[in-house]
Amino acid sequence: MTTILVTGGTGVLGRRLTERLRADGHEVRVLSRHAQPYAVDLVAGGSGLDSALAGVDTVVHCASSPRGGDEKAAANLIAAARRAGVGHLVYISIVGVDRVPFGYYRSKLAVERLIEESGLAWTTLRATQFHDLLVTLFEGLSKSPVVPVPAGVSDQPIAVTEVADRLAELAASAPAGRVPDMGGPEILSLRALARTYLTATGRRRALLTVPLFGKAYAGFRAGGHLTPERPVGKVTFAEHVAERFGGGRRTG
């Protein structure tokens, strides 16, 4: 039996990954700021991190925050993993972190490089955005009567459970370095995705296409965050929202 520690194990991805790993028979430790008995703030580090990693074979690093701190958290995790003699560090990153000059993406790329240079055996998987992220985005935008949508931007959303299944496979396998990206089954405009969400939730809203500016926006318009050659996901966004919201019974 392998002992696997999942950072960010209470998050959207971490919960599914933890469930899958336990179903496969692994001993799993969940590390997050509030999950006992391994409640650790990775940015702050501290002795609790060493205790959490004691006897761990593999770490899957899912903890991340767009608010910052990812590089410091990764540095603390790497140092503790070295001290503990961890044999394999698996990291989940994002497609396009090396192509789109977006602040959060730059942090994810920096963490990739820290892991590659860590001296630990490692595996990195990049995936496109989860269906859940788009749902959260559209929920916020649809609170007003008009939903603004960035002009000329498409997305390739993927089911979080599919990414969790792939991470579980990688965690149970030998270190593989950078593995092939995972993309969702369809590339659709944000306008089309927003319309799908509104239909599924029964909301009547006008869509307003809004041009934005800057290098990051240009990178998204150019499709730097997409992987058209790797449409390996099976569940479409339409299927996801239909299952989640029951086909448009919700109103408001």
TrEMBL record:
Pfam families: NAD_binding_10. Residues 8-132 form the NAD(P)-binding domain. InterPro entries: Ergot_Alk_Oxidoreductase, NAD(P)-bd_dom, NAD(P)-bd_dom_sf. It comes from the Bacteria. This is NAD(P)H-binding protein. It comes from Streptomyces neyagawaensis.
